[in-house]
Write a structure and sequence with these properties.
By secondary structure, the chain is an all-beta fold. Helices cover 0% and strands 34% of the residues. Strands 1-6-2-3-4-5 form a six-stranded antiparallel β-sheet, with no helix packed on it. A hairpin with a 2-residue loop joins strand 3 and strand 4. The N and C termini lie far apart (35 Å). The relative contact order is 0.29.
């Protein structure tokens, strides 16, 4: 019997949910592609972080810097500030 999927790439899909920055925890996978604060470019070609198109970021730390800014540090070395009411895509 021949496997119809042999030699084909199958995308790995995870379920996703929307979470506010202060509710994140270390080790969570975040999809930052197209995020208006972390990846404000209109397309992957214009993005300062084209890797967001094919990589998730892993939360390394969270710190409230001001009433209006929560800084998220990622294991890649990237850090970004988000407003507390911002919804981020978390991969479960």
């Amino acid at each position: 019997m021949v496997n119809p999927m042999q030699g084909k790439t199958v995308p790995f899909r995870k379920s996703r949910s929307l979470v506010r920055p202060e509710s994140l925890s270390r080790g969570r996978l975040i999809d930052l592609e197209g995020d208006p604060y972390a990846d404000p470019g209109d397309s992957a070609e214009l993005s300062a972080h084209p890797e967001f198109a094919f990589e998730y970021e892993v939360v390394a730390g969270i710190e409230r810097e001001t009433d209006n800014c929560i800084r998220i540090d990622f294991e890649s070395g990237f850090s970004c500030g988000f407003p507390p009411d911002h919804l981020m895509i978390v991969c479960d």
